[in-house]
Amino acid sequence: MPADRLLPTTEAEDLLALTRELAREELAPLAAEYEEAERFPREQFRLLGKSGLLGLPYPERWGGGDVPYEVYLQVLEEIASAWMSVGVGLSVHTMSCFALAHHGTEAQRERWLPAMLGGDLLGAYALSESHAGSDAAALSTRARREGDAYLVTGAKAWITHGGQADFYTTMVRTSDDGGTGISCLLVDRDTPGLSAAPPERKMGLTASTTTQLLFDNARVDADRLLGEEGAGLRIALESLNSGRLGIAACSVGLAQAALDEAVAYAKQRTQFGSPIIEFQGVEFLLADMAAAVESARATYLEAARRRDRGLPFQRQASIAKLVATDAAMKVTTDAVQVLGGAGYTRDFPVERYMREAKVPQIFEGTNQIQRLVIARALRTA
Ligand SMILES: Cc1cc2nc3c(=O)[nH]c(=O)nc-3n(C[C@H](O)[C@H](O)[C@H](O)COP(=O)(O)OP(=O)(O)OC[C@H]3O[C@@H](n4cnc5c(N)ncnc54)[C@H](O)[C@@H]3O)c2cc1C
Known about the structure:
Helix content is 53%, strand content 15%. The protein is α+β, with helices and mostly antiparallel strands. Strand 9 and strand 10 form a beta hairpin. The protein is globular, with a radius of gyration of 21 Å. The model has no long low-confidence stretch (mean pLDDT 97). Bound molecules: flavin-adenine dinucleotide.
């Protein structure tokens, strides 16, 4: 059942209608096959680009869609509902454009942003390292200035779109000053000395490639520094505030898909002479799932509306990410329960949804880290 949305304008309604059609016709039919084959959906990202969906929340003058976050996130939710790996990929791409769009110089934006937002290129965001996950400030990939370039050496871990992306928004260490010794470079995929390790073998999101990125004296032109030297961690965390809203929206989309499957199954499956949806034990489970989906959606929309109005939204973004990803884990698990034995097989998508729901509780700051952000805001309020 399509989510019942209150959209701010008729243009937004049209955009959502177009997205739903694209998701239903072009994405949903391929999801199970690509996930099973661990095949990266590069063509589908090109299609999103051609449809103008790869730069939605950025200004039109650089090829973006100029839509409010409130609308962009609902587009993302619809895409994730059809295919979570593509939704997460769109969210990561959008986040990878943040540093240039918000911290690049005018000349840098003119030069690179239209291609990044306009459709054919795909981005990645490279912060984590094997020893620096939750503690991102401990990262050690080193960029040493030599003339008009940085020579970068080290390894980034867990990079979504590793080896597939056209550009990598990469946080590197330019001095030993802890969190203020980190800088942000826009690294081109063809940079000499840059390579990707073989993809990680994951529990879910298997069509979304995740790899280590290896820098071996990789030469990055100094004019690819975004923001000041030393501003990289601040830029990375700012990007994550917005990115977490994307992960929240994707998780709501996934939970909605699981709820829809569960309701459809419960209406047609009979036991003891009745459709199982008529048993209170099942219908209350479905009611709780619907309540979790709608309250998580309301939570991310509230944070997005604050962002759209220029209000602080960091705490609300962490709450949205925590609430929505926990909701998706619970709702997808309950969907498997509603389908009984069938839910545990690959004949139905709910077992995949359940596997896909786990990682949003981990990436872009684990849910423990979201609690730290929320608790810190309470302490300092
Ligand atoms: C599929 C996938 C895709 C990813 N994509 C990207 C990407 O595109 N770009 C990128 O930069 N990174 C990416 N990541 C990395 C991701 O953001 C990290 O995995 C995450 O931040 C956690 O880091 P970690 O795995 O090192 O866990 P750790 O930091 O080692 O945490 C282990 C456990 O300890 C807990 N913990 C740690 N510190 C604290 C604390 N202070 N208080 C309480 N609990 C704590 C954590 O919550 C967790 O439960 C991805 C990860 C995965 C799995």
